[in-house]
Give the backbone structure.
Amino acid sequence: MTLVELLVVVVIITTLVATAIPILNPTTDNRRMREASRAVNGFIAAAQTRATQIGRPFGVALKRLSQDTGNVEDRAKCIELYYVEQPAPFAGFDDASFVRVALDFDRSGGREVLLPGQVVLQFVRRQAGVTGQVLGNSTLPPGWAADPLPVGLFKQGDVVEVGGKAFQLIDTGFPVQPLPNNKLDANGYYKDQVNGLIARAVDGVQPEVYPRHDNVGNELSSAVSNQSPYWSGPQTFLIRRQPAPTSLSPLQLPPGTAIDLQASGLMGVSAFYLPWSSNTEAFIDNDQPVVMMFAPEGPVSRIHISQQLGNRNNPSSSTIEQIPSGQIALLIGRGDTPPAVTVGPLGDQVDLKDWSTNSQDQLKKVRADHNWLNGDSRWVVVGSSTGAVGTVENALLDPTKWQTYDRDNSGDVPFAEQIWAATEFVRQSSRVGGR
């Protein structure tokens, strides 16, 4: 064989190898998505197993990237998951622990306006020989003193059950004795729980507060009108605390990947990231994690989401518990996509029809910038009723056929309809199984 012939053979072999490598090996993005989805799948499945083993709720928290970066645009991304467990209910450290309840009022402007369903809670304890102890701006009944519970015991969103009523601790309102401005630490735990905690009735119904005591500890007739504060007598209580992080190692997603919380959520019901919009009073645009809890029996028992309420510039927050039905879908995609939409209805800013006339190069960039349009993305799906975890491919949408995705015949395909189309393979699955 001459040198020329040898060079020809080398060139042919090199060409064949260069052609075969992309076929035999998936792209870097594809490989990373698969690796990330397998890791998330296994991490969540292990939480379900753990709940069964220990016989109490156990789950997974999806940490928002903004907790580490401080950037509000990162609230729709998650690159770290960690395990959480449900602490045992707390009813005080001994039989002497009780709580008092008073209706809460807005006292701004020199007037009192009842805040519907809202109360102030004071934790007290039975202590013989004590008379006239002042707590906040009121005096406790004889034989009662403040209960010095440890700082950080309670967290915003915990539920207090007292007198047959359930109240959720919140971070807003007009307390009888104003708390320090920094009453919550960075993780939402209360720094001051002596003067009083603000809580809202879970069912929204205004509670009755009997028997009442006035500000100097004297018991009043039940016929007294509902004027502030008129505390109830000390009552027993039970606090259902929110899931707390465990000491187990967290899961860090492979570099370049993330869970897209903007596209993830309860399928057909709600997303795990919802920007503020002038036409809604509730939005999920904060640094608190999304928590998914498994019951010991196997199914998903609760999803905890910290939801903002009211004006975006002056919001109050409340941790809501959702009892899921159907499927929970987590979209594993690229981590370097553009920032999340932070203001306005998401559907007004993302429309598949707008991309229908793009060139192939332009469309390629659109797919890279939107995880739910990217063929490399993967869905990790959890069946809420069974707790089974599986991985499903993302359905690749064709903008030139946008009319087929227009479910309500409105003439456009906004974000919600795009997500519905992207989960086609998820919905087609008769059961959730690992891949």
Remarks:
- Confidence is low (pLDDT under 50) at residues 173-181, 431-435.
- The helical segments are 3-24, 28-54, 66-69, 360-369, 415-422, 424-428.
